[in-house]
Design brief:
The protein is α/β, with parallel strands linked by helices and 211 residues long. Helices cover 30% and strands 24% of the residues. It has a five-stranded mixed β-sheet, covered by helices on one side. Strands 2-1-3 form a three-stranded antiparallel β-sheet, sandwiched between helices. About 5% of the residues have low confidence.
Length: 211
C-alpha cells in the first residue's frame, strides 16, 4: 500500500490561523467556524508562502518582454544553462524576479511583484530560487547566469546584506529573504554561478526589458 504523503494545512480564517501539520489541527480550528478558509499543500514552503499571501505568477511570456535572441554564435555562452534577473520600480519599490532557459528564453519561474524591495534583493532571491529549483530537479551541474555581482556575493555569504528596512509593507518579500537565507545555510549546491557579461553579450535573457 502506498504511503500517504505528508501535507501541510493553511488556515486563513478560523478560531486560530497559521500553518499546521495535521488535518486534525486544521479541523479543530475550522469546524463550525463561520466562513472558515483553509487549504492543504504538499510542502511547508508552499504553505508558508500561501499563508503570507505570496503570489506565484504563472510562467507565461508577455509581449513587453524582450524577443528571443540567438546566442549560439557566441561561443563563451553555455547554452545548456539558466539565467535569472530581477526588476524594481523605485528604491525601495515594487520588485519581481524570474528565471529562464538561456538558449530559448523560456520562462521557468516568476515571482512578484512585491512591495518595498530593491533590485539587489530581487537578484538574490532569483539566484536562490534558481539554485533550489535545479537541486530539486537533480540538475546539480547546470550553470546559472546572473548579471549581479552583488547578489552572487550575497549567495556566497549566505546572507542578503540589504540596507532596505523591514516594514509591514514588505513583509512578504522579507519572508522570502528569510526563507532563502535559511535554505542556503541548510543546503549545499554545486551549480556554477557565472557572471553574465552584459557589455559583451547584451542583456541577460531573463531581463524584463524595461530599461
Amino acid at each position: 500500500m502506498a504511503k500517504n504523503k505528508k501535507k501541510y494545512y493553511v488556515v486563513w480564517v478560523g478560531s486560530k490561523t497559521g500553518v499546521f501539520e495535521t488535518w486534525a489541527e486544521c479541523l479543530l480550528y475550522t469546524k463550525g467556524y463561520p466562513n472558515a478558509k483553509y487549504k492543504s499543500f504538499s510542502t511547508r514552503y508552499e504553505a508558508e508562502d500561501a499563508f503570507m499571501g505570496v503570489e506565484h505568477i504563472p510562467s507565461t511570456k508577455k509581449k513587453s518582454e524582450p524577443a528571443i535572441r540567438d546566442f549560439s554564435k557566441i561561443p563563451e555562452i553555455i547554452l545548456d544553462s539558466i539565467a535569472v534577473d530581477a526588476a524594481c520600480s523605485g528604491n525601495p519599490g515594487k520588485t519581481e524576479y524570474r528565471g529562464v532557459i538561456t538558449s530559448s528564453s523560456e520562462e521557468i519561474f516568476r515571482m512578484g511583484p512585491f512591495e518595498g524591495g530593491s533590485n539587489n534583493i530581487g537578484e538574490f532571491l532569483a539566484l536562490v530560487h534558481g539554485i533550489a529549483q535545479m537541486k530539486k530537479e537533480g540538475k546539480n551541474d547546470k550553470v546559472i547566469y546572473s548579471d549581479s555581482k552583488i547578489a552572487m556575493g550575497w549567495i556566497r555569504k549566505k546572507k542578503c546584506n540589504t540596507k532596505i528596512e523591514r516594514t509591514r509593507e514588505n513583509a512578504k518579500l522579507f519572508h522570502l529573504v528569510d526563507r532563502g537565507e535559511k535554505w542556503l545555510k541548510e543546503n549545499t549546491f554545486s551549480n556554477p554561478l557565472v557572471k553574465w557579461e552584459t557589455k559583451k553579450w547584451g542583456e541577460i535573457p531573463a531581463d524584463f526589458g524595461r530599461k
